[in-house]
Amino acid sequence: MTDPHSVHAEYARQVTYRWTAEPGIDLDSPEVQVARAFTESQDAWGRTEDHLSVYPGYPGKTYQGISVHIPPRIGTTYLHIYGVEPITDDNGDPATRVTVCYDLSTRAIEDTPGTWVPAETGFNVGVVVTRDDRTQPVRPELDHTRRLPYPTWDVFAGWNAHWATGRHRSEATATRTRCALEMKHFNPDRRSTPIPPPVEPFHPGWPVAVDTPADQQPR
Length: 219
Hints:
Largest sheet: 7 strands, mixed
Number of helices: 3
Mean pLDDT: 83
Order of helices and strands: HEHEEEEEEEHE
Strand content: 25-35%
Oligomer: single chain
């Protein structure tokens, strides 16, 4: 049987995501998992322009199944969550805002043979998470002791997510400053190197559904 997540596995060998958060924030809470899956899917599409790189149920742009050649981005993506707060969305409905700081400076592209150039640095964004309906979304039973660098189940079932827009778009100056200064790998110089940056182990990754088929389980 063909692994439906073979594309995710291949891209995970090129780029991994390492998440941290302020004390008291649970990286495996449903709303935070939705924000993480949305952020990683958005980033995967931007990196690859491959519609197969986004996660199951991704509520973003409808891709047309086209892909173009993009030099691979190799390395590790560091992300830190500064806040998780209840808000109302632009329709006045209850929502959750997750404030995320990206650090992409340890990802690079091979500009010329033997010359790897960091393609991005870092920035601060907000993700607004809402429910598709007012009932409690049903998640599969998850085994949190087994982890993969990508979810094999639909994290978005019963949820929606989008970048903060309108009145939720602006970020406090203090948070932007923390994002720029506190991410330990932030590199505004973006100097080239003769070797690609390391692809470090994912963290915390994604729990595996208890009934995940054997050919999709961690090896």
